[in-house]
User: Fold these one by one.
Assistant:
Number 1:
Amino acid sequence: MFTGIVQGTAKVVSIEEKPNFRTHVVALPDNMLAGLETGASVAHNGCCLTVTEIDGNHVSFDLMKETLRITNLGDLQPGDEVNVERAAKFSDEIGGHLMSGHIITTAEVSKIITSENNRQIWFKLQDATLMKYILYKGFIGIDGISLTVGEVTASRFCVHLIPETLQRTTLGQKKLGQRINIEIDPQTQAVVDTVERVLAAREAALLQKEAE
């Protein structure tokens, strides 16, 4: 599990490509190396990856076909940076919201509005059917960052970013058209799905009663 409080950014130093598979090596910040072992979980842009090799601060991670398909990690090139967070421990402060590191889709940066000490970024989901899970003032994971949803329309939503978030994460570098990883809040998803099932069951019961 993760908290959505990004601990830093890490530069991709090398990438080894194989058929439907990729190993990338990142230079982790020194403050994230203590106690790190192979097999540990580290989120990259919100996607949970497993440490496969450690060489000083150069840490290797394997990305399988599904990860490359559903996230923006397959877009990375050497020199790019990713948001990183180590897995949460019991007794850690949960400053954001609980996140699984399981990316559900990506979204495209569709609009950026910058004003003094603030930035508003609008996103358009790759899978528009998931918009039902994005609610005003609800939680959402964007490239591993726990954020609160601002305005919501039928096809887009936005978040409001303070200077600290822009400085500590890669969101401050995002440009129009770039893809970001999305993790939907599982509690919101469960509530929406439950309500849909209940309403569908009631409608089916009414239709059956009318047919009798």
Number 2:
Amino acid sequence: MEQRYNMQPEEAWKAIIGNDAAYNSRFLYAVVTTGIFCRPSCKSKPPKRENVRIFPDAKTAQAAGYRPCKRCKPTDQRLPDEEWLLQITAALDANYDQPLTLADLADICHGSPYHLQRTFKQRTGITPVAYLQNKRIEAASRELLHTDRPVAEIAASVGLPNTAYFITLFKKLRGFTPREYRNQFRQEEVTPNGSC
């Protein structure tokens, strides 16, 4: 934990882990992996200690490139939905290959699952789950065309370890089973316009 304040690192860490509101006026903490900064009392999932950066105030945290938490509002202002949408999309893009629930995503993006779902759908026209499914199928499509890895292995690598579900979802979104997709489109890539 990087020290940029007048306090012992252990004291700050205890305040963060304990969600201690008594420290809210003394420092803010940012999480490197999410790009978000919070009050010590924030009820978000506890970060890994090595990913925490401490700042004396919101201005300093923002100058370092961190965005305010949607949950604890460390600037006492509401984060604009457009910024939050970018944060949600970046989290989905970075974690598509991991098991990810709406609650997990809400924790990463420091908001409530209900508000996150509603905001994302209002702004994009699709749910976070639909976005995630599309992202996973796009990645699987690339793998199918550019590798010889088995379908089950590709499914697991894009965050869909249930092969039967992966095949069903792939066919729903692409109109082909993964094997049909690989056979049809890999062939077209190798022999454009059907010529030899």
